[in-house]
Amino acid sequence: MSNDQHLTEHTTSREELLKGHFLHVVRETVRLPDGGAATREFVLHPGAVAVVPLLDDGRILLERQYRHATKQVHVEIPAGKLDAGETPLVCGQRELLEETGYVAREWAYAFTMYPTVAYSDEAIHIWFARGLEHKGARLDAGEFLEVFSATPQEFLGWCADGRIRDSKTLASALWIQNVLAGTWKLDWQAPPTQP
Amino acid sequence: MSNDQHLTEHTTSREELLKGHFLHVVRETVRLPDGGAATREFVLHPGAVAVVPLLDDGRILLERQYRHATKQVHVEIPAGKLDAGETPLVCGQRELLEETGYVAREWAYAFTMYPTVAYSDEAIHIWFARGLEHKGARLDAGEFLEVFSATPQEFLGWCADGRIRDSKTLASALWIQNVLAGTWKLDWQAPPTQP
Questions:
Q1: Chain B CA closest to residue A69
Q2: What's the pLDDT tens digit per position in B92-117?
Q3: Complex-level ipTM
Q4: How do beta strands B24-31 and B10-19 pair?
Q5: What is the DSSP string of B127-152?
Q6: Whole-angstrom Cα distance, residue B97 to residue B99?
Q7: Is the CB of A118 less than 8 angstroms away from the CB of B67?
Q8: How many CB atoms sit inside 10 A of residue B131's CB?
């Protein structure tokens, strides 16, 4: 996968299309591999972190949250956007505490996923967390969600029967299945706990 | 999961934010579960279909494609947007042929995934295809991609080592692993072949 010049596009100009309260969209004109021109429109996003929180009894901590874009309640792992200058680990610690009220003693980076390669530059960094201790949630104003837990068997069953439909949660299920089976390894670390 | 009124938001107004060449973005004002108000911005998308094409020798058909939003080449399963009035199965047949040059004798619906619940209404319907026969690809103008194949072991290894980073492809890997292991079942059908 070394030389991708026959596939790669090069930006020749960029135009701002939208600076909303939340969404930032640009249009770039690109030079195609064959020398032609095309335009690409996409969302600029700071990136995000999602956390797979494993409770000491083997259950997985999950959230139920209404997502207005989809007009549905989704079962998801905890996640949130990176703040400016924040490392993914610190973001994961912050989001886990804010949304679920838990802190975790040990953390392990698993993988990075692009949810929407066609029209967003967002990357989601997925971390596993264990050694959980409950401290109390601190939801943002206007944020409504339910925290609950499920066994890995229940969780994987919901991926199979369509009850789980969120991409970061489904992709993390591949990791959960293989990590719990012992076939994929994580490199656990014990970082300083966030205040 | 029957009564979600304590989580659900209700639209009170909608505003067009962007009608680009490709992206359509709206802002909706919503009434929150506690009676407060908030705004939600998101992409309106027609939906998409992705296909897991299984070759007779057990290999998986894949694509390498540069995705300008991410400035990277991604390994992906074939996929494309639903045309107006098109069923997901017909869309999958069309995209598989256009992008890879293959037709498939048997098809099975696997799952539906929302890539970006936070800011897009896009749903991706994932189908498996087998009984593949090569006819010759018909790429759209300005579309550049490479078609290749991998064993399931190679493919899952690339999910584990970070070489595969596309959400629909990672989520499909969970299905590929469990379908090939025989633990998750698919309901195969033999639809009319597309012309």
A1: B121
A2: 999 999 999 999 999 999 999 999 99
A3: 0.96
A4: antiparallel
A5: EEEEEEEE----PPTT--EEEEEE-H
A6: 6
A7: yes
A8: 15
Binned at pLDDT 50, 70 and 90, residue A140 comes out as: confident
Q: Strand A79-81 and strand A48-54: pairing?
A: antiparallel
B158: tokens are 């690339």
Chain B residues closer than 8 Å to A4 by CB:
64, 66, 73
Helices B167-180, B152-161: inter-axial angle, 10-degree rounding: 140
* Nearest-angstrom CA–CA distance, A72 and A55: 27
Nearest to A41 among B21, B34, B123 (CB): B21
Kindly list the residues from chain A whose CB atom is less than 8 angstroms away from the CB atom of residue B99: none
Query: Which residue(s) pair with B193 in the sheet?
Result: none
Query: Where are the alpha helices (H) located in chain B, listed in sequence order?
Result: 88-100, 152-161, 167-180
- Predicted structure pTM score: 0.96
Put simply, the answer to whether B69 touches A112 (Cβ < 8 Å) is no
**C-alpha dihedral sign at B98, B188, B63, B168:** positive
Chain A residues inside the 8 Å CB shell of B165: 111-114, 123
Q: Find all residues with CB under 8 Å of A72, minimum gap 6, and list them.
A: A66, A165, B114
Contact at 8 Å (CB) between A102 and A132? Answer: yes
10 Å CB burial of residue A132 (0-12, 13-18, 19+) is buried
Q: How far apart are CA A51 and CA A32, in angstroms?
A: 37
On whether the CB atoms of residues B100 and B22 are closer than 8 A, the answer is no
Tell me the C-alpha distance between B96 and B80, whole Å.
Answer: 9
Number of H helices, E strands in chain B: 3, 10
H helices of A59-166, in order, are 88-100, 152-161
Question: Largest Cα–Cα distance in chain A?
Answer: 58
